[in-house]
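Give me the fold.
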Amino acid sequence: MADMDDFTLPENEGDLQDQIEEVEALSSIYGDEWCVIDEASRIFCIKISDDLEEPKLTACLQIILPHDYPSAAPPIYQINAAWLRGPERSSLASGLEDLYV
C-alpha cells in the first residue's frame, strides 16, 4: 500500500485527505494490478490485460492526481498500450475525460 507521508502537501489539505483515501481504496480494489509509479508526484497505474494467466494484450492506465484534485482539477489519464492506436485510442481517451465531467 502507498505511504502517503511522501505526498507533497497541496494548497487545500482537504484535497490531500481525499487523495489519500482514494488511493487507499483503489489499491485495495485493484490489488496486484495497482502500481505506484511516483508517489511524490501522485502518479499511479492500473495494469490491464486480456488474460490473467497468459496475457496477450496488456495496457497500463496511468492516473495522475494534480495538487488541486479533486476540488479544482480532474485526474489526468494516460493510456499506455502499444497495440491501441488511432480512433480506438482517441475514443477511449475521450471517454476517460468524460468520466470526471
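Confidence is low (pLDDT under 50) at residues 1-8.
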